[in-house]
Amino acid sequence: QKFEEVKGMCDALRELMKDEIDAEVKRQVQERIDAEVNKKVQEKIDAEVDAQVKEKINAEVESAVEITKKESTKATEKRINALIIALSKADRMEDIIKAAKDHDYQQNLFKEFGL
Fold first, then answer.
1. What is the CA radius of gyration of the chain?
2. Buried residues in 3-38 as b, exposed as e (16+ CB within 10 A)
3. For residue 4, what is the enclosing H or E element?
């Protein structure tokens, strides 16, 4: 009997607070939905930012590589031209042709002339 009394009181209390309980449930559900939506939006934003950062880094790296290639090519051209001039001044015209055909020979000439 005591149990039935307590149960009746709980049911009555639940009925009295039904609107407040429903409102609180609705508020918490909306809060969780908003949190989940915000989380997913933030994940998409983070992914987009990450993709843009990677794209920018790749573009910068490509640009740096291209600049390095151009600088390297210019340095190589200057080195070869300096060798040709040195061989020409030393009246070693055949060595110019041989160096153009034989990479190892060309490297030895660079060493010989300190280039």
1. 41
2. eeeeeeeeeeeeeeeeeeeeeeeeeeeeeeeeeeee
3. helix 2-16
Residues 42-73 as b or e (16 or more Cβ within 10 Å = b) = eeeeeeeeeeeeeeeeeeeeeeeeeeeeeeee
Rounded distance between C-alpha atoms, residue 102 and residue 94, angstroms: 12
**H or E segment to which residue 1 belongs:** none
Amino acid identity, position 92: R
- pLDDT given for residue 8 in this prediction: 84
Mean local confidence (pLDDT), 11-35 = 91
In angstroms, the CA 52 to CA 62 distance is 15
Q: What angle, 0 to 180 degrees and rounded to 10, lies between the N-to-C axes of helices 18-89 and 103-112?
A: 80
Checking if the pLDDT of 58 tops 90, the result is yes
Question: Which residue ranges make up each domain of the chain?
Answer: 2-112
